[in-house]
Amino acid sequence: MVFADYNGRAYVADVFEGSEAEAKGVQQGDFLMTIDGTDVSAWSMTEVVNALAKDEGDNVSITWMRPSSLDAQTGDQFTTALVCKVYEEANLTTDLTRKVGVIKLRQITSNAAELVQQAVESLTTQGATAFVLDLRDNPGGYLTQAVDIASLFVSSGVLVEVQNNEGEPTEKSAAGVSITEAPMVVLVNKYTAAAAEVLAAALLDNQRATVVGETTLGKGSVQVVRELDFGGAVRYTAAYYLTPRGHAIDGVGIVPQVTVVTGDADGADEQMALAVDTARSLAKKAK
Q: What angle (nearest 5°) sits at the alpha carbon of residue 193, between those of residues 188 and 199?
């Protein structure tokens, strides 16, 4: 599973296909309530991940809460007994359909920009004339990598503003070396969060990509946990992400230019189909 934070609480951002968690009914959007009887309902993603860092083969009992939405405070609870296993899931996958290179990025990890660059170069060699960057269900990750990925497609300009508690914004700009001018579509949904939202906004505000899908999560804040001398800890917001045009992300999200809510119908990915069609249309106009 992949975990993320929402309002200081850890939830399931993704469930690996074929995993025991999937087989036992754990779903995207479920919040953790207890781990082996310990109340973790107010724990952050980092605290949860550390608590679940067990040896392969160890057993763990987790109680989940399934809210009607991420903002809901209550919901149905259920408990699963799971065996800890190592799952290897590629962080980036690619596909080429009708000359549109599709790049699916699960998380913005420490090497995400390098992976995206390699994918773009490989797909271009295979004949891609446009790209879809699929950020659906991406919980974010490294801000620096989000900026570096955006710089692969934007040669100049502001990519994000980081505003501290004193209200002073710091701009992060493109590195000046883009690797392609091919038309782009960024595909997002309601679980696209944090640094992934920064990336989508950077490409949108710089008119480098068309955003398709659903309004994103709206997690545009930097949370810091500081341990106290007498025990315990305090969590506070240290900064906020703003789009290149100065719009807030936190609590608002990134609104797509082309909206399609339903992800699957009869096994067909309608969001992806529309994203690919949009990319092909942009490529034809660019000729």
A: 70
Across residues 165-191, what is the average pLDDT?
92
Q: Is the pTM of this model over 0.85?
A: yes
Per the structure, the count of domains in the chain is 2
Distances (CA, A) of 200 to 83, 179, 197: 36, 17, 5
- Show the tokens assigned to 243: 């789009």
Cα 236 from Cα 176, distance rounded (Å): 34
Nearest Cα neighbor of 254 from 264, 263, 265, 245 is 245
Residues 6+ apart with CB under 8 A from 226: 233, 234, 235, 236
* Angle subtended by helix axes 143-151 and 195-205, to nearest 10: 30
Query: Where is 271: in which H helix or E strand?
Result: helix 270-286
Contact 210, 257 (CB under 8 A): yes
- Report the run of H or E that residue 164 belongs to, with start and end: strand 158-164
Instruction: Examine the pLDDT at 225 and tell me if it is beyond 80.
Output: no
Examine the domain organization and report whether 58 and 180 are in the same domain.
no
111 shares its domain with 29:
no
